[in-house]
Structure formats: structure tokens, C-alpha cells
Hints:
Helices cover about 70% and strands about 0% of the residues. The chain has two helices and no strands.
Amino acid sequence: xxxxxxxxxxxxxxxxxxxxxxxxxxxxxxxxxxxxxxxxxxxxxxxxxxxxxxxxx
Length: 57
């Protein structure tokens, strides 16, 4: 809510980072649930799938 302290024209730009933060939280949550990954590629595949599903909403 601190973005409201800024002028109105900046609100959309500042709030847009909230979506990115939510995406990172979701990736963190899902990677913790998986436990371990075989390699870096399998972790990036999971992160990509999460991002693609979020963009479809």
C-alpha cells in the first residue's frame, strides 16, 4: 500500500512489481514442495511452467 504515497501516474508502474513478487513466492513454495532437483534444468523447467500458467490467467 505504500505505492499510494506516490503520484497517481506512478501507481501502475509500482504495483506491477507485486505480480513479480507473487510469482517468485509461488516458485519458492513449489520448489520447497518438490524437495530436490536432479539438475538445474529441471528446476528451470518448473519455474517456467509456473510462469506460463500465471500468464494465462
